[in-house]
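Response to reviewer comment R2.3. The reviewers asked that we include at least one raw input/output pair. We reproduce the pair for DUF4142 domain-containing protein here without editing.
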Amino acid sequence: MLAALLPFAHAHAQESASATPSAANAQKLSAADQQFLQDAGQAGATEIAASKLALTHASGRQVKEFAQRMVADHTKLARNLDVIAKRHGITAAPTADSAVIGSLENLQGAEFDKAYIEKVAVDGHQKAVALFKKESESGNDTALKAAATKALPVISHHYAMAQQLARAKAAS
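Raw output as returned:
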């Protein structure tokens, strides 16, 4: 739904170590907020990469339309999170979950549709809703908490769309 960002946490740790004490304190994110950025970044990067695959590998028109929407929405969300990450000195770009992408790369047509809907559309958004809900309720960084709160309705709508897509595919 949204978000590996391990390089984000690693880059943050390296930059904080080299920054002056006052700059490090100003940029410090809580461990929970760092984890949110990492998880959200990876989820978003995975969604974008898998959805771009869907544009060429999927057979269903509905699946391709869903994928186009996911690329657009998750790219916008990723930009918003990147701005906040950069404010905290985190500049490494998130990477997609290679296991998920790898499991989709060699699939085509209906087989791809089924795997994409299950692994990315439904499961991915279910996890993203929980992730963004948690951050919106208990995040420490005001900007991250606000970004999660703003993104949550969009990601929740994606999850509902994914469930509808899964039902439509199961019925056909």
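The helical segments are 6-18, 21-27, 31-57, 61-87, 98-105, 109-138, 142-171. Confidence is low (pLDDT under 50) at residues 1-26. Further pairs are available on request from the corresponding author.
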